[in-house]
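Sample intake sheet
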Amino acid sequence: MGSSANATQLVPLLNVTDMERSVRFYTEGLGFRMRNQWLPEGKLRWCWLDLDDISIMLQEYRPGRIPVGTLGLGADFCVMCEDAVGYYQELKGRGLDPLEPFVGNGLWVTQIDDPDGYKLFFESPTDEAEETKLSELAA
């Protein structure tokens, strides 16, 4: 049975504690591009970012509204890629510290957490054995 929603895209909205820090991480670190932004009183409060065919939105918490506890808890973001291992090496080259790629569920998986603790997994299909680590192939 079809849907009348005509849904075309899911765009997560991540609430962040420091917009400048988060935008720098996503653009300079991960390679996202700014598509749109909201600048009330000249200060960036919200933006839409794209990386190839995926998008996210960032919005800064208003003062006094930051929740108590761990941000991002319970929400993981899995990004399917052509080459997660190549992207891992690209991130390392940009000075970031993603986790070593390993094989899980027939996918190379590398993880990096954003400045607020949101977990981002970059994954690509592989025929390597489950639980193989990238360093084991180089040995």
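Comment: Residues 10-63 form a domain with the Signal recognition particle alu RNA binding heterodimer, srp9/1 fold (CATH 3.30.720.120). The chain is about 20% helix and 30% strand.
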